[in-house]
Amino acid sequence: DSGVTQTPKHLITATGQRVTLRCSPRSGDLSVYWYQQSLDQGLQFLIQYYNGEERAKGNILERFSAQQFPDLHSELNLSSLELGDSALYFCASSVGGGRAEDTQYFGPGTRLTVL
Amino acid sequence: GESVGLHLPTLSVQEGDNSIINCAYSNSASDYFIWYKQESGKGPQFIIDIRSNMDKRQGQRVTVLLNKTVKHLSLQIAATQPGDSAVYFCAEKKNTGNQFYFGTGTSLTVIP
User: Fold this and answer.
1) Which of A56, A90, A109 sits opposite B99 (nearest CB)?
2) Measured distance CA(B22)–CA(B8) in Å, rounded
3) Contact between A104 and A23 (Cβ < 8 Å)
4) Which residue of B has its CA nearest to A4?
């Protein structure tokens, strides 16, 4: 158990809908990262928040957004869902803002299925 | 852009044998590398890391080797056990950035 929690574990929805994924980082960690993992694909970095502020942005679609709240939990919002958005979404957390040796610890993931 | 790839998508080894999982990276500016293990239905789990100023680092039953000349990273698992069956990802990061770049993964199957 990494100490990172994600809810829900599974989510099934229809195209065009909007969903929110939630992540609670490890105690003491200030950074939260979101990743997408599609079938047979590696982990694609989406976005990072550090202490409430956006720190880095990867290949995140405009239909997706995220935020980190004062209690440091984070939410990833996915809107106008398409079939291709079906994937595992992982949250990771780290102590610092992302310096080289800032190890990221991953949560168990949310499996999103868009029908 | 950055590219992290794996030489082999699957690897099968006999229980008790040593496993070697390879990874090639393309960004010579990367100076930090991590190996993660992902079991079915779970999130990636940190195994071991190495900085670019090192060429070898050892952990418990695992060793990571870094060859910067050919931009190659490998993970060696000693006395492989059934519990080692998983997908293994390498990831690289530049010290100036926050983003990790992950490979597509190698699936390791341990045969009892």
Assistant:
1) A56
2) 7
3) no
4) B43
Nearest-Cα distance to chain A for B103, in Å, is 6
Alpha-carbon span B89 to A5, nearest angstrom: 21
What's the pLDDT band for B95 if we cut at 50, 70, 90? low
In terms of CA atoms, which chain B residue is nearest residue A37?
B104
Q: How far is CA A9 from CA A21, A74, B19, B57, B88, in A?
A: 9, 15, 32, 35, 22
Which residue of chain A is at minimal alpha-carbon distance from B41?
A108
Q: Show the 3-state SS of chain B.
A: CCCEECCCCEEEEECCCCEEEEEEECCCCEEEEEEEEECCCCCCEEEEEEECCCCEEECCCEEEEEECCCCEEEEEECCCCHHHCEEEEEEEEECCCCCCEECCCEEEEEEC
3-state secondary structure of A112: strand
Q: Do A40 and B4 touch (CB under 8 A)?
A: no
Residue listed under structure tokens 């993970």: B75
- Whether B100 has its CB under 8 Å from any CB of chain A: the answer is yes
Chain A contact present for B101, CB below 8 A: yes
Query: B30 or A100, which is more confident?
Result: B30
Does A52 or A101 have the greater pLDDT score?
A52
Please tell me the predicted confidence (pLDDT) of residue B1. 36
- How many Cβ pairs closer than 8 A exist between chain A and B? 63
